[in-house]
């Protein structure tokens, strides 16, 4: 979503008096240029609840995150006090020190290079091993790829077949509120360090996808 679209979205939030929860955990993992601006940056009436954490950049085990609640701040604080009155201080102080001494910025520079290299390798593997009809996103950050196969492809079947071989993917229906959309799509995680094992897994996924498409073609014929 570019800045123009973000501004338009905020205009709609204001027009219809609607809140928006923005999850920006991948914002710091941008490969080139300036960090993308959050929707919160265009929030003129404090309707955006901006959420982020260090779970994708440092460690999920730290359990450190934050929320800029805008006009909903008081309600969020009240709910937080009801759900959990005690928040671990040590992880927060650790992250704060890492931010203050410049360690986080140095870490991000290395992380961005690593993730970009791994993503490029996986994109190349998709071109090498997957069906020619495969469409794949070209993200400028983060560590996930979204793949779209021809209509009729069953990514849930691919998920089950791959899982039996020790390979994990995220079928598209997981990202559908109704559980009915994106059945021909799936997501791949590129955060795993590239290795011969990962390349073999990509070859296997490609073969499974080709087999399913061939079967679909024969049925249609």
What is the gist of this entry?
The chain is α+β, with helices and mostly antiparallel strands. The protein is built from six helices and seven strands; from the N terminus they run αβββαααββαββα. The strands form two sheets. A four-stranded antiparallel β-sheet has the order 4-5-7-6, covered by helices on one side.
Q: What's the Cα radius of gyration?
A: 21 Å
Residues in helix, %: 40-55%
Structural class: alpha+beta
Number of strands: 7
pLDDT < 50 runs, ≥5 residues: none
Whole-Å distance between the termini?
Answer: 40 Å
CATH class annotation of the largest domain: Alpha Beta
One letter per element, helices H and strands E, the order comes to HEEEHHHEEHEEH
CATH fold group of the largest domain: Aspartate Aminotransferase, domain 1
Q: Taking all residues together, what is the mean pLDDT?
A: 95
- Which outline best applies? globular
Taking strands numbered 1, 2, ... along the chain, how are they ordered across the largest sheet?
Answer: 4-5-7-6
- Counted up, domains total 2
Under the CATH scheme, the architecture of the largest domain is: Alpha-Beta Complex
The biggest sheet amounts to: 4 strands, antiparallel
Task: Walk me through the structure.
This protein has two domains: 3-101, Type I PLP-dependent aspartate aminotransferase-like (Major domain) (Aspartate Aminotransferase, domain 2, 3-Layer(aba) Sandwich); 105-220, Aspartate Aminotransferase, domain 1 (Alpha-Beta Complex), CATH 3.90.1150.10. The protein is 44% helix and 13% strand. The protein has six helices and seven strands; from the N terminus they run αβββαααββαββα. It has a four-stranded antiparallel beta sheet with strand order 4-5-7-6, covered by helices on one side. α4 (103-129) packs across α6.
């Amino acid at each position: 979503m570019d800045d123009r679209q973000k501004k338009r979205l905020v205009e709609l939030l204001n027009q219809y008096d609607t809140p928006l929860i923005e999850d920006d955990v991948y914002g710091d993992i941008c490969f080139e240029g300036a960090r993308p601006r959050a929707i919160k940056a265009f929030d003129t009436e404090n309707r955006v609840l901006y959420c982020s954490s260090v779970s994708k950049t440092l460690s999920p085990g730290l359990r450190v995150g934050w929320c800029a609640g805008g006009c909903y701040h008081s309600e969020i604080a009240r709910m937080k006090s009801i759900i959990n009155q005690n928040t671990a201080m040590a992880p927060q102080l650790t992250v704060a020190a890492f931010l203050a001494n410049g360690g986080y910025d140095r870490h991000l520079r290395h992380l961005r290079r690593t993730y970009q290299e791994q993503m490029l390798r996986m994109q190349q593997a998709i071109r090498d091993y997957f069906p020619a009809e495969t469409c794949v996103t070209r993200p400028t950050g983060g560590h996930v790829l979204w793949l779209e196969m021809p209509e009729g492809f069953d990514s849930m079947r691919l998920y089950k077949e791959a899982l039996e071989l020790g390979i994990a993917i995220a079928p598209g229906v997981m990202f559908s509120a109704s559980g009915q959309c994106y059945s021909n799509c799936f997501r791949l995680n590129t955060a795993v360090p590239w290795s011969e094992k990962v390349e073999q897994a990509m070859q296997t996924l490609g073969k499974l996808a080709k087999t399913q498409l061939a079967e679909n073609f024969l049925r249609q014929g």
